[in-house]
Structure formats: C-alpha cells, structure tokens
Amino acid sequence: MLAQNTDKVNIDFLKDLSGVKNADDLEQIRIKYLGRNGVISKLFNQLKHVAIEDKPALGKNLNLLRSEVTSQIEKLKSSFVSQKSKGDLQMDLTLPGKKYQIGSKHILTQTLDEIKSIFKEMGFSVHVGPELESDYNNFEALNFPKNHPARDMQDTFFISKDFLLRTHTSPVQIRLMENMKPPVRAIMPGRVYRNEAVSARSFCMFHQVEGLYVDTDVTFAELKGTLVSFASQFYGEDLKYRFRPSYFPFTEPSAEMDITCFICKGSGCKICKNTGWMEILGCGMVDPNVFENVNYDPEKYTGYAFGMGIERIAMLKYGITDIRIFFENDIRFLKQF
Ligand code: PHE
Predict the structure, then answer these.
(1) Is the CB of 284 under 6 A from ligand 1?
(2) How far is the CA of 315 from the centre of ligand 1 (A)?
C-alpha cells in the first residue's frame, strides 16, 4: 500500500512540476510535497503501520523520493533565479531609449588637431619627444650654457641635477636633428612644465607645438610666410599681425609674432595691457651653435624654428580669458566646444 502510494506521489510530483511557471508556483509545490504536513511527511507517517520486515526497504524508498523531490525543486528554483537576473537586463521595449553620453574631444585636442592639419598640408611631419628630459637637450644643446641667465626665462622643475621636466618642446628639435639628416620639416607637439605661480595667464603645465625646418637656403622670409599662412588659416583671412624682434638662445635672429587682441580688437584693453596686440609665438633662424651641437654643417644648412603655446592659441581664438579653465574639467566649459 505504502509502496504504491510512494509511486503515485512520485508521478503526481512530476506532473505538478511540469506545470510550474514561476517561482511562486514552485513554492506552492514545495509546500505541498515537502512541507511539515506535506504529502511526503504523510507517507513517512504511514511507515508506522507497515510490517516490521518491510520497513527498511520502504523507508529507503521514501528517503529516495524525498531527496529526489528536493533536488528537482532546488534545480528549478536556481533556474528561476538566473532567469530573473537575466530578465533584469532584458529590454522593456516600451521604455524610452537610453541616452548615451558620447564624449567629445577636449578643446585643446581640437586646437592641436587643427594646427597639425594646417602644417601637414604645408609638408610638415609630426614628431613627439619625452616630457622628462635631460638638462642637455632642454638647455645645453639649445645654446643655454650652464649658469646662463637665459635659463631663468623658464623656471624649471628639476628631477635631479641632470634631468628635468621639459620647459618647452624645443628639446625635440635636438632629438630630431640628432637622428636625421636634412631636410627636416616637422612639428613637435607636447606637454611642457614650468615652475611658475599659477594665475589666469600662466599654469605650471601647458602644451606647445614646436616647428623646425632645416635645409640648404632656408630663409627668414620663408619663416614669415609659413607662420602668416598658418595664422590666417587658423584665425581667418582678415587677421592683423606683426613680428617683433626678440631673443632666444637657440635662434638668431629671433622674433615674436603678435596678432590683434581678440578682446578689444586692437584698441587696447586690460588683457593686452593696452597694446592692442597679443603674442602668439616665438620664432627665429636656428642658431649655428645648435647646428654644431647636432653635427649639422652650419656653413651648408640654414633653418628656422618656432614654438607656440596651444592654450594661448586657443584662448585667442575662442576668447578664453583664464588658462586654468582648460584643466578644471568643468563640463559647462568643455561642452561649449
Ligand atoms: N621654446 C621657446 C619658448 O618656449 C619658443 C621658441 C621655439 C622660440 C622655437 C624660438 C624657436 O618660449
């Protein structure tokens, strides 16, 4: 009798189980079969009434049934759990679409991209050098002798006696010339560091683009032509500019290029210190001493070099009056570009 009941319960259970659709159904089935007053408990109660010699076999059967039912229920339960977590990821097609925040290029990257593309059109290649430089490449080879006062033009973060964070991109000129023969026509963008008080006009880290063209018979007129062409492509044809004599140890003669102040359009204001002009870059003809340091024959080759600050170039183009804002990652600023 008990044996038949056991078989029937097994069949009923499998039938019930096949009708289970969700975790709640399953819980009902669990209670029905495994609950304290459930079907299987009742079968165990019937054991009391069977003949003593039949007890071991029937008991074993009942235990088997109970563990089989338990394991089937557990198995189905865990499949509901994993489906539930999958279900969370499944799309509800009635919901509005997710808005992906696609990032955009930082204004400095955009500015550099534009500078690069203008110079590439003019035949310049692009090279980069390390931010940690030797004193030799950053100063000495560029004709800043040790203890020369011109070193004070650029307050330096020294790492050790002979190494520093480069104060300008000009050392990449040295690296390039040491590794290739003329003609060399390249721009060299990168980050530079200066130990200066942080203010609206200067930051301890900024970006520069260096330019270098070395060949036989390169002239100052070509330097001017190249830079004017660059500036009018970058700022627009109606740009007003001027070149002023200046001094850099690694160029002779040296000059600085100014364009009309973007704020007052030339009439004079606080930003341009009432001059109506803003400096955008330094430049000049490569000093023969520099050629000697890289084993180029100064009798045979001439060249020009220039260097501009990318932040400054962008500030002038977009009317940004504080350099620090480039590095604050304020989304309200970044989103405008
Ligand atoms: N390296 C100079 C600076 O940082 C700029 C410069 C580059 C000037 C090349 C002349 C030639 O101020």
Answers:
(1) yes
(2) 19
Sequence-ordered list of residues with C-beta below 8 angstroms from that of 31, at least 6 positions apart, any chain: 38
Distance CA 244, CA 256 (A): 5
Domains of the chain: 2-89 (no CATH), 107-334 (3.30.930.10)
pTM to 2 decimals? 0.71
pLDDT in tens, 5-61: 888 888 888 898 888 888 888 889 899 998 898 888 888 888 888 888 888 888 888
Closest CA to 195 of 187, 185, 205, 186: 205
58-95 pLDDT, tens digit each: 888 889 888 988 988 888 888 877 666 655 567 778 88
Please give the distance, rounded to the nearest whole angstrom, from the Cα atom of residue 252 to the centre of ligand 1: 12
Which of 168, 177, 226, 286 should be mutated for ligand 1, with most atoms under 8 A from CB?
Answer: 168
